[in-house]
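Batch manifest line 765
LIGAND: beta-D-glucopyranose
JOB: complex structure
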Amino acid sequence: MKKISVFATMLVLALIPFNTVYADGSPKLRADNIDEVLQAMTLQEKVELLVGRSDEEFVGSSDQMGHQMQFVAGAAGITTAIPRLGIPNTLFTDGPAGVHIDATREGVNRTFYATGFPVGSCLACTWNTALVEEVGKAIGNETREYGCDVLLGPGMNIHRNPLCGRNFEYYSEDPFVTGEMGTALVNGIQSQGVGVSAKHYAVNSQETERTRVDEQLSERALREIYLRGFERMVKKSHPWTIMSAYNRVNGVYAQGNHHLLTEILRDEWGFDGIVMTDWIGKRADLPIEQVLNAGNELMMPGYKVQEEDIYKALAEGRLSQDVLDRSVRRMLEYIVKTPRFKGYKFSDNPDLKAHAAITRQSSTEGMVLLKNNGALPFNESILGEYVALFGVCSYDFLSGGVGSGCVNVPYVVDMVTGFSNYDIKTTPQLTEIYRKYVDYAKVKLQMDKNPLMWFLDQGQPKLDEIEITERCIRHEVNEARAAIITIGRQAGEGIDRAVEGEFNLSSLERNMIQQVSDVFHEQGKPVVVVINSGSVIETASWRDLVDAILMAWQPGEEGGNAVADVLVGKANPSGRLTMTWPISVYDHWSTRNFPQDYDMYSYQRLESRNRPIKGITYTKHEEGIYVGYRYFDTYRKDVAYPFGYGLSYTTFEYSKPVVKLKDDAIEVKVTVTNTGNVAGKEVVQVYVHAPEGGMDKPAKELKAFAKTGMLAAGEKETLTMTIAKEDLASYDETAKAWVVAPGEYTFMTAQNVNDVKGEAKLMLK
Ligand code: BGC
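JOB STATUS: finished
ARTIFACT:
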C-alpha cells in the first residue's frame, strides 16, 4: 500500500512542468534566478538537496546501495526533487564502459539493454582520442535516452600496480595518457547534454579495504602522478561533477579533504561543478561539516541520518550558513544543466545497432598484438576451414568487468560466432565439450552464489577452466588449421587480484598451453593465445611456447567479432600498451607496498580495527613518482612488454624529429612512412628527458602522442604535436610550486618507451 501511494505521488510530481510559476508565488528555478530560488528555500529543502535519496521508496527491496527502482530501474542514485521550486530529481548511472541500468523492469514487457563498450584500459590502448570521443558521444547519448543526467565515469585512477581489482576501469599507469583519454571521453559524453562524474578523486589505487585505507604519499607523487590526469581533464573538458574517493589520502578521507577538493581542484584548477561522495553513506568517523567545508556538496547514495547530521552541525555552529548556501548554490547550478530540468523527453530507445559498430571499431583498435612470429594474420586459405578453440572464455567471452562498472549488454559475441562470421568453423567435438560445460557451469555458479558478494554478481562472472586431455588435443589437431587458446580473467570492485591464478597462470592453464603447443607444433600448426582480461597478466614464463599473443582485453559486446577482425587481418592491430607488463608482478616497486592475499572475511579485518596494518589500513607509496615505466626505464629493469609497446602487420619508419619552441610551447614534428605491405596506423610517442642538475626526474616521461590515420603501404603522414612548457614542470615540495628546470631537454620520438626512433634537443630558459 505504502509503495503504491508513494509511486502515485512521484508520478504526479514527475508530470508537473518544472518551470511554471505557482499561485503561491514561489520562484521556479531557471538558469538565471539561482540566487532568488536559494533565498526562497527552506532549511529543510536546502539540506535535502545535499543528500541523495536512497530511502526505501526509491530503492525498493534492493540490497545494493542506492540502486534505484524509481524512474530508471538500476540507476545508481538520485538527487532530491523540490517541486515547489521547480527542482526535479536528477539521476546518476554507472559507468565507464557504458550505461549500467537494469535490463528488465517489473511489469514492463520489454528490455533496457545498453551497449557494452571496451573497458577503460582497452579504450586507452587505442591512443586514439578522436575514437574515444566517439565512444563518449555514444555513451552520452544512451545516458540521455535512458533518462539519466550524469554518467558515473570516466574512471581516472592510476594503475599503480597490476593487482588492483579495478584497473580495467582505468586508463593507464601514466597521467598524461589518463588525462588525454579522460578529456576525450568527457567531451564526448557531455556533448550530448548530460554530465559526467570523473572518479575516484583521488589515489583510489587499491580495492582492499578501499573505504578506509590511508594512501600515504609525497605531495610530489600526489600531484605529478595521481592528480595530473584529473587536472588535465578538468581544465580541458569542464566535467559537471567529480566523485570523491572512498579512501583517505595522507590521513584525511578524500571526501573531507580540503586540500584536494578546494585548494587544488577549485582554487588551482578552476573546477566549477559539484563534488559527490562515492557511495558510502554516513561515516561514523568523519563529521559532516568537514565534508561540506572541504568542498564536497553531495552525499551519495544519501541517507536521512546525514540530513540530521547537517541540522545538528548547523545548530551547534560547526557548520556555517555560508557553506550550506554555497553548496546548495552549486547544486542548483548543476541542476539547471540537466536534461530532467530541461524537460527532455527521452526515448528509452538509443540506437544500439549504430553503437555496436562504434564498440567494434574501438575494441579492435584497442587490442594489442604482443607477439607474432608470422602466424598472424591467418592466411586467406583458412576461410572455410576449422580452428580449434581452447579455453572456456572462447565460448563465454568476457565483454567487461564486474561490479558497478559492468553493463547489462544485449548480447556478447563469442569467438565461435566471431570466426563463423568469417566463414571459419570451430572443430565440432571441442565446441560441444565447452558449450555443454559452459551451460553446466553457469547453473552451478548460480547455486554457489555468495549473497555477501552482491557487487561481484553485477556483470559476467568467469567460469572455471576445465582440463582438456592430450587425447582430445590429438583428435583436434587433425581437423584444425590452428589452435587458439583464450586465457580469461575477471576482476572488479572490492577485491584486488591474487598473484597465483590471477596475475600468474594456474597450473591448469599452463599445462593447456604446453600440451596444445606440443601437439600442434608437431604438425607444424600455429598456436595463438588470446588474453581476455581487463588487466595485465604474467606472460614471460610461457610466451616462448606459442606463436602469437593478442591482448584482447574485455572489449565490449562485439568482442568475438573484434578478435576475429584482428586475427584474419581485416583490422591491422594498432593498439599500444598504456601500462608496463612486468616479468614478475614483484618487479613493480609498488608491489612491496600493495596488499596481497587479503581475505576480507578473515581475522585481518577484525584485527585491523585495533591497530594499523600495512596494506590494509594504510599503504605507503615508497616508490613515490616511480610508478610503472618511470621506474622500469629509469632503473633499467627488464620487462615482458614495455609501456607503449604493440606490434603491427606492417612496419613504419620515422623521419628525424624537428623540435621548435613556439611561444610557450614546444612543437614536435615527425613524418611516419608505412614501409610494409599492408595498410596500418602508427602511434608516435614523445618522451622527454629533463636536464641534469635539477630535481630528481625519471629517465623519460611521456609528454605527447599522436596516431596516424590509416596509411596505405608506402604512404606517409606528418604528425605535429605540441607540448605546453608547463607540462615539463615537476612539483617542488619545498617551493610548493611547479618548476620547469632550465637547461637542455631531449625530445624523443619513440615506438615505445624502450624503442626510441629519433631525438632532438632544445635549450629552455
Ligand atoms: C563505486 C563507484 C560507483 C558507485 C555507484 C561505488 O561503489 O566505487 O565507482 O560509481 O558505487 O554505483
